[in-house]
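Co-fold these.
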Amino acid sequence: MKSKIAIIDYGMGNTFSIQSALKNVGLESVITFKEMEIINSKAIILPGVGAFPKAMEKIKKKKIDKIILQANRDNKMIIGICLGMQLLFEKSYENVTTKGLGLLKGKVVNFNNDNKIKKFNVGWNKINLNFKNKDQNLKKLDKKYMYFIHSYQVIVNEKNIETSTSKFDSVTFTSSVKKKNIIGYQFHPEKSSKNGLLIYKSIKKLFSS
Amino acid sequence: MNLRIIPKLDIKNENLVKGVNLEGLRSLGNPKKFAEIYYQEGADELIYHDVVASLYERNSAPELIKKTSSNIFLPMLVGGGINNLKEVERVLRSGADRIFINTAAIDNHKFIDEIIKFFGASTLVVSIEVIKKRELFYCRKDFGREQTSLELSDWCKKIQDKGVAEIMVTSIDQEGTGKGFDLNIVKILKKIIDIPYILNGGFSELKHFGEVLDIDKPSAFAISSVFHYNYLKKISDKKNYSDGNFVFLNQKSGYNNFKPLSIRKIKKFLNKKFSAQFKD
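Predicted complex below.
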C-alpha cells in the first residue's frame, strides 16, 4: 500500500490549502490527528496558523510530540510551515513561554519587544538563499517573493541550518531552515503562487528519486 | 515599498456581485472564473466578501472558498457574517488564511480578543465601512445597511489597542463610483493608527493611487469594479455570458465609466512611479 503524507491537524491550521497544493503536484495526503495515520505516513507536515501555546497543548495532549520525535529518529521527512516551523524549535515566547518540539536548536521571539505596537509581517517578501546551506526545494527561488504572515520569528542557534533569510522593515530574519530530514518554511509555499508550487513539485521529486 | 493589489469579490448566493455605495448589487457571474483570471494576472491576495451573510445571519460560503482555493494558490481573506469561533474555524479550514469581521466586532468587542487568543492576531482583519456625515466618518454594520454612532477614529484606536494586525477601511460614499479614494479617511488613518490598513472604495484611474500615496502608505489597495468590468469587457466579445445578470451585462451601460485596467498595468505603474515592489 502506498503511504500518504500526513498533514497534522491540530484544529487550527490552514490544512486544506496544503492538501490542495500537494494534490496539484500529484502527492496524496491525509489531514489527520490519528496516531496510526501519522506513524504510517511517508512524511509529516506541520501546518501554520494559530498560536504557539495552543498548538503545543493540543499536540502534547494527544502525545503527537512523541510520534514526531520517533519519526525524526526514523529519518522521516518532517516539514514545518509558518507556525509549524516554529514548533520545531526549543521554545517560544508567544503569549507565555512554551516548550516546543526541540528538534532544532533555537527560540521563537516577537519581532519587537521594545515597541508597544506589535509588528506583523503580512505580505510578500523576497527570500535570499544562503548558498552554504542548501535546500534543494528552493533551488531557482533565490530573490523570489513568498507570502508571509507572522509576528514571531525564529532565532536559530546553529547557523548552518539557515537556508534563507528575508527582510521585514529593518529586521533580517530566518525564512527557512533545513537539517537533514527536517525542513522549515516561515512563509506559506501553498499560498505563494507559482513559485510556491515549485517547492511542492520539488518535494515530490524527493520521493520519486 | 511593499504594496499589495487585492481584487475584492463581493459574493451573494454564490454569484459575484457589484453595486454602487454598497447598493444596487448586479450579478456579474461565477466568482471562481474571475478569481482565476486575477490569479493569472498576478493578484497579491483575494478578498471574498459574502455581502448578505450578516443580514440573514447565516454563514459565509465555505464551499465556494474551497472550490476557489483548491486550485488558486494565493492568500485569501474571507468575511461576511462571521460571528463565532466555530465559524472562524470553518472558514479557515476551507482554505482562507485570514478572516475579516465587521458587524460582529462592533456588536461584541470581545469577539476580537477571542479570535486573537485562539487563532493568533495575524489571522484577523477588522473591516470598517464608513459613511461621511458632517465631516465625520461613522461606521456602518451589515454591509452598509445599519448606521451606528461609532466614529472611525475612536474605533480605529480601540482596534489597534486590542492588537489587531491589519484593518480594511471602505468608504461607502466612494465605493463603486470610480471617483477615487476618500482622502480624508487616509488623513485620519495616518494620524490615528500605526498598524497596516487595506484601503477600499472608489478606485478607477491610476492617478487615484498618487493622491493617496502623497499622503500616506496603505499596506494594500482593494479593487473591485475596474477589475470585474475589465474582465467582462474582455469576454464580452464572445457575447455568451453563461451566468450573471444578462440584461445588465449586454447593455454594458453600467460600467462604461470604467476604463479597462489590468493588475499587471497597475503594478507596472506603481513600480515605475513609486518604486513599489511586487512579487510579479
